[in-house]
Structures are given as structure tokens and as C-alpha cells.
Amino acid sequence: MNTVHPKSPTAVALAAATLLTLTLAAPAASAVPVSMTLKELPPGLAITAMVFRSTCPNGGQHARQFAASFPLTESSSVVFETVTGLDGRPTLRSRVVTIYSGQLAEVSAAVPPQNRCSFGQALTFDAGVMGAGANGQPAQRVLERLGSAANPTTAQNVVRSINGSSSGLPAARDLSRNQLVSFTISHENPFGDAFTQAPVMEFSRPGPIIGGGLRLAQVTRLFIDASGARCIRAAGVTRCSNTTPLQNGRLIHGGVELVVATTRHQNFQSTFQFELNNDFVAGSYSVRAFADDNDTIDYLVDGVPTELDLIKWAPSTSAMTVL
Questions:
Q1: For 38-58, how does the pLDDT look when each residue is reduced to its tens digit (9 = 90+)?
Q2: pLDDT of amino acid 129
Q3: Is the CATH code 1.10.1740.10 the one for domain 164-322?
Q4: What is the DSSP letter of 26?
Q5: Which of 207, 226, 232, 296 matches a 20 to 30 Å C-alpha distance to 267?
Q6: Contact 273/180 with Cβ under 8 angstroms?
Q7: What angle do CA 243, 244, 249 make, to 5 degrees?
Q8: How far apart are CA 267 and CA 193, in angstroms?
Q9: Residue 321 reports pLDDT greater than 90
């Protein structure tokens, strides 16, 4: 019988090899508690959290396997925040914040060895907002991949604010009239790019109101409607490319010449190409760009199917000076 001395070179080599093996091995996925908290949604909704395991059967393509679900419970609180009015003075304002939260004591990411992926084992988290489809049958919209955890060994807490957002406008810019310009806006929709619609680019400037104060009065809005028509709304009148004759490929209204062929929207990006002519009043403008989510179902609000604009949208903003 051969005996290896604890401090012999052979023992040291064996210990090093064992340590290396332990270091390279992916940590084992264990059953862990999970929780989810969603914010910025309206009250009264029915929401279910869903947990999925990652699986790659026989080393094949990655897929998600349902692991567990649990309901989210609504709660609310009042918060106070300081807002600055158009007159520049701060005002304290209260706001009711609705929160949906829930938890599950134990979920495992483990799958049989032959179904494991090369990156190890993982959990991903979705949430379904319940409602009714066009035929009145139960339906849901899914907020996908709100979080993920590779080889989880500790509690997983998913916390997300659910809203849409746009970006791409410069913080400030000068716009010269009679000069062609183009702006590309990127949009993020928690329900996915395919549900983003109705992009808008809006110019506003201070205007008088009763009492002698100031307000932001809408001046011109460029947008693409649900049918895909390119439109301009100015001075309370809307004109669109599908009903108004174009002039050299441009829709002209309210001092704006919108280039129809190159003003487009696809998935997460919108492009507005236009020229401001001499009818557009020079001066300082507040410019916003945003889009909307396509609400494909009526949502259950306190158990009743209700038509609802579900998510808020944070616009991209810019201070522009028209010269």
C-alpha cells in the first residue's frame, strides 16, 4: 500500500489540483427565496410574478422552463416632493405611490445535468398583468426579463419601476430656419419594442394665461399616427400625409416642412426629418420627444376589464432656440 506524506510534493500537487477544480467549477444552484416589487403602475391591477429556469436540452438552444408563480399584492403610500413651478418658485406636493409586491419562500434553478447550459444554471423573472382580450376572454400582457440570477445561492429581490422612456435629443441646440435637420429618438418599452407606437416630437414655448402668468403653450407637434401617416398639428389644426397633398415630398403646415419619406418609426427608434421655414416664429422653445405603449388588452382594475393607458412615459427633452 502506497502512502503519501502530507507534506510531500505529491500531496501538495494533489491539493493544488483539487483546489483548482473547485475554483473552476460553477457554483451549485440552490433553492432560494425570491421576491418582486413593481412601482409606477396604476392602482387596482391584478399582477402575477413568474419565475423561469434556464435550460439547454442536450446542449442545444437556450430555453426557459417555468418554475413557479406568485401573486403581487397592492399597497400604497403618500410621498411629498418639491416641484418648481413655471414662475420658478418651489412648491411641496403630495403624491400617492402604488406598489405591487410579493414573495416565494423557495425556488430552485436546478435542472438535470443533460439540460444544463454552458453558463450554468439561472433564474429569470417576468410579471403578467391580467386583463381581457377583444373577445372578452382572459388575457395578459407580460413584462419580460425584469431580472435574472446566474447560479443563485442567495435571496433574489427584483425591484423595478415600470415605465417607458425616450432619449436622443441634445440638452440644448440652436435651430436655423430654412435648414434641413434630423433627429433620431430611441424608445424603451418594458413590454418590448414591438409595442411602441405613435412617436411624437413637440415644440412648446411660453404663452400668456389669465392672471398675467406664464404657461407652456403647445405650438407645434410632429407625429406618426396609428395608421403610419406623418402628421403636423399647429394652431389647433392637424394635417397628415395621407389626406393632405405633399409639396416635393414634404408635408407643410405651421411653418414646418416635414420630409415624409425619411420620417419613420420602427420598433425602438423614430426619426423626424424636417425644415423650419420663415413662418415658424423664432425664439426659445421647450422640445419633447416621446412615444406610447400599444395597450392590446383591457386590464382588470378591481376585477373589472378597463380600457387603460397603463404605463407612464418619460420624454427626452431639450431647450432649443430657433434662429
A1: 999 999 999 999 999 999 988
A2: 97
A3: no
A4: P
A5: 232
A6: yes
A7: 120
A8: 5
A9: yes
Mean pLDDT of 244-259: 96
Whole-angstrom distance, CA of residue 86 vs CA of residue 126: 40
Q: Distance between CA atoms of 185 and 130, rounded to whole angstroms?
A: 31
- Asked whether the beta carbons of 105 and 22 are under 8 A apart, the reply is no
Which amino acid belongs to residue 228?
G
Most confidently predicted of 60-69, 80-89, 176-185: 176-185
In the chain, list all ranges with CATH 2.60.40.10. Answer: 164-322
CA atoms of 63 and 22, how far apart (whole Å):
28
DSSP 8-19: SHHHHHHHHHHH
Q: Grid coordinates 418619460 are at which residue?
A: 314
Q: How far apart are CA 303 and CA 296, in angstroms?
A: 18
DSSP states along 238-307: EEETTTS--BTTEEEETTEEEETTT-EEETTEEEEEEEE-TTSPPEEEEEEEEEEE---SEEEETTEEE-
Instruction: Decide: 197 and 291 in contact? Cβ < 8 Å.
Output: yes
Tally of CA atoms within 13 A in the half-sphere of 213 that contains its CB: 10
- Please report how many Cα atoms fall inside a 13 Å half-sphere around the Cα of residue 89, on the Cβ side: 4
Give the burial string for 133-152 (b: 16+ CB within 10 Å, else e): eeeeeebbbebbebbebbeb
Nearest Cα to Cα of residue 122 among 131, 111, 112:
111
30 bridge partner residues: none
Beta bridge partners of 319: 172, 286
Using pLDDT thresholds of 50, 70 and 90, give the confidence band for residue 257: very high
